[in-house]
Write a structure and sequence with these properties.
The complex is a heterodimer of chains A (about 120) and B (about 110). Chain A is mainly β and about 120 residues long. In chain A, about 0% of the residues lie in helices and about 50% in strands. In chain A, strands 2, 4, 5, 6, 9, 10 and 11 form a seven-stranded mixed β-sheet that branches. Chain A has a four-stranded antiparallel β-sheet with strand order 1-3-8-7, with no helix packed on it. By secondary structure, chain B is mainly beta. The chains are: A mainly beta (about 120), B mainly beta (about 110).
Chain lengths: ~120, ~110
C-alpha cells in the first residue's frame, strides 16, 4: 500500500474486555514498531519486529499486552483484560532497514478508549 | 521510558519568524531523528542526523547535533502557519527509536 494502515481508527471498549489492533505496514518493510502515545506526551516504545520475530519487546507494560507478526507483514497488538489506564493512541510504524538506521513511517494510529 | 527532553514545551511565534527547538538526551546514540505530528495524525519523519555529523539542512529546516553535550536543535526558518504542529526528537538506542517529550509549535498568521 501507499502507507502504513491501522485499523480500527477508533475503538471503545469496556474495562475487562479483550481488544485487537491491526497494522498493515508498507509493502517490503521488514521492521515494524508499536508505540503508545498519551495526550501531550511523546510516543512510548512498546515492541519492535524484524521480520516475523519480536526483536525487542521490552516496552510492553505487562503480560496483558502481546503482539504478533506471523508472516512478517501484518501485525496485531492484543490487549487482554483492558484497564482504563490502557486508554491511549496506539501507533504503528514500519521501516525498510530497521535498527533505527532509516526513517520510520507511521500510521495514523488507533485511539483506544476503555470505559 | 523516554530518554529525550525537549525545550520549550510550547512555542508561539508569528509567521515569518524563526522557531528553534532543543532536545537533550541521556545515552550515547547512533543517530538522532526529528519528527512532526499534526493533531490527531501519525508522525512524519523530517530529518536524520548521524552521530558523526554536526549539522544538516533540509529546505527550511536546520538540525545541529552536539554529542559532547548530548543535545540537538531544530531550527525552522521563515515559519508558516502550516508549520503549526508538535515536533519530536527521537534517539536511536540499540535497536529501537526512543522519542522525546515534544515541543508544541503554534505559528500565527
Amino acid at each position: 500500500g501507499a502507507g502504513v494502515s491501522q485499523t480500527p481508527s477508533n475503538k471503545v471498549t469496556e474495562k475487562g474486555k479483550y481488544v485487537e489492533l491491526r497494522c498493515d505496514p508498507i509493502s517490503g518493510h521488514t521492521a515494524l514498531y508499536w508505540y503508545r502515545q498519551s495526550l501531550g506526551q511523546g510516543p512510548e516504545f512498546l515492541i519492535y519486529f524484524q521480520g516475523t520475530g519480536a526483536a525487542d519487546d521490552s516496552g510492553l507494560p505487562n503480560d496483558r499486552f502481546f503482539a504478533v507478526r506471523p508472516e512478517g507483514s501484518v501485525s496485531t497488538l492484543k490487549i487482554q483484560r483492558t484497564e482504563r489506564g490502557d486508554s491511549a493512541v496506539y501507533l504503528c510504524a514500519s521501516s525498510s532497514l530497521g535498527r533505527g538506521n532509516s526513517p520510520l513511517h507511521f500510521g495514523n494510529g488507533t485511539r483506544l478508549t476503555v470505559t | 521510558s523516554q530518554q529525550g527532553e525537549e525545550d520549550p514545551q510550547a512555542l508561539s511565534i508569528q509567521e515569518g519568524e524563526n522557531a528553534t527547538m532543543n532536545c537533550s538526551y541521556k545515552t550515547s546514540i547512533n543517530n538522532l531523528q526529528w519528527y512532526r505530528q499534526n493533531s490527531g495524525r501519525g508522525l512524519v519523519h523530517l530529518i536524520l542526523i548521524r552521530s558523526n555529523e554536526r549539522e544538516k539542512h533540509s529546505g527550511r529546516l536546520r538540525v545541529t547535533l552536539d554529542t559532547s553535550k548530548k543535545s540537538s536543535s531544530l531550527l525552522i526558518t521563515a515559519s508558516r502557519a502550516a508549520d503549526t504542529a508538535s515536533y519530536f526528537c527521537a534517539m536511536y538506542n540499540t535497536d529501537k527509536l526512543i522519542f522525546g517529550t515534544g515541543t508544541r509549535l503554534q505559528v500565527f498568521p
